[in-house]
């Protein structure tokens, strides 16, 4: 068990550019989540995959954001035409599907996005 | 909707002092409750969890009891150490939130600093 890994750890880009982040979940976990965390706040839910299906998206996820999880393994989160307000830590988490709310989610170290 | 309220930080304690971080919640269903910890420069780690009323979660000397009557899940430790300095997040996962995603709803976090 190597844990959830995210790449890159840091991304600095100019406003208007597109960025893509990658998440590799724990291998046997079929649930994958993306969260966004801004300074001084707790993480906020963005979207959720069960295997390769994206089953839920938050209202926070504008149409500039898109996430994929091809083949139910790694996932990517893309932000198009980045804006200053997109600066945040983007966290990925995974968990095992047992049909109960008590399964803990395991988090990666996050990708910190800074928009110049 | 679901929400989690934590006591405002930062909290500064001397080594071996008693710690309490208050957490109350609002949920539409029957949530599972979690405490996550974020050490400087690291990702979120699960500290402890409780899945039903009167359950007590414990780990590394920390404890929290699921109190349904007061909708609370306060974190306690009898004697803190310098190494406990971190940001602590209370969170809930509710089977009735969203399309069965069991997404986590977090509090804003409480920063704890322990001085020798």
Describe this structure in words.
The complex is a heterodimer of chains A (116) and B (116). Chain A has 116 residues and is an all-beta fold. Chain A has no helices and eleven strands. Chain A has strands at residues 5-7, 10-13, 19-24, 31-37, 44-50, 53-57, 65-68, 75-79, 88-95, 106-107, 111-115. In chain A, strand 4 (31-37) and strand 5 form a beta hairpin. By secondary structure, chain B is mostly beta strands. Chain B has no helices and twelve strands. In chain B, the strands form three sheets. In chain B, strands 2, 5, 6, 10, 11 and 12 form a six-stranded mixed beta sheet that branches. Chain B starts with a strand and ends with a strand. The chains are: A mainly beta (116), B mainly beta (116). The interface between A and B is medium-sized, with 27 and 31 residues.
Report Rg of chain B.
Answer: 14 Å
Number of helices of chain B: 0
Compute the number of strand runs of chain A: 11
Percentage of residues assigned to helices of chain B: under 10%
Largest sheet of chain B: 6 strands, mixed
Gross geometry of chain A? globular
Oligomeric organization of the protein chains? heterodimer
Helix content of chain A: under 10%
Structural category of chain B: mainly beta
Note poorly predicted spans of chain A: none
Q: Name the poorly predicted regions of chain B.
A: none
Instruction: Spell the H/E element sequence of chain A.
Output: EEEEEEEEEEE
Q: Tell me the fraction of residues in β-strands of chain B, as a range.
A: over 45%
Secondary-structure content class of chain A: mainly beta
State the shape of chain B.
Answer: globular
Q: How far apart, in Å, are the first and last alpha carbons of chain B?
A: 41 Å
Distance between the termini of chain A: 36 Å
